[in-house]
Specification:
Oligomer: single chain
Shape: globular
Radius of gyration: 16 Å
Strand order of the largest sheet: 3-6-5-4
Order of helices and strands: HEEHEHEEE
Distance between the termini: 40 Å
Number of strands: 6
Strand content: 15-25%
Structural class: alpha+beta
Largest sheet: 4 strands, mixed
Amino acid sequence: MAADRKIKVLFVAGFGPIVWEQMPSEKFYVESLGLPLKKEANGYLHTEEIEGVKSFALWPLAQAAQSCFGTDTWPEDLPVPRSWLEFDVEDIEAATVELKQQGYKLLVAARKEPGGQIVTRLLSPEGVLVAVTYTPWMREKK
C-alpha cells in the first residue's frame, strides 16, 4: 500500500515550538542553549545553521513519562508536552550544570539511558519536552 503513495518524505526540514511568550523562549533557545537564531523584523527567530534531525519519532506520552519520572503517568502538576526536541551537545555535564544554574527545573539530569545515551530533560517555556544529550551512536566517526 505504501508503494502507491505519491508523497515521499526525504528528511525533516524543520522543527520548532509554537511560542506563546517571546522573551522566555528567546532566552532559553538563544541565551541558554546558544542557538544561532536570527531575528526578523516581525520577531520570527530562525536558523538554517544547525545540522539536520537525526531521528524523528512518535514518542508515546507513557514512554516519555517513564523516561523522566520512572512511571507511565505524566505528573498532574506539570504541563503535558505536545512535542519533544533533543539537542546533542558537546559536553553534557557542563550543559546540565548551566541549565540548572539558570534556574530551569530539570526533570532528569545527565542520566544514562539503557542504550547508552546520556540525557538531561526539562520543559521549555512553551511546554516542549527538551533534552540536551550525548548520543554516541549518532556522532560521526572520524
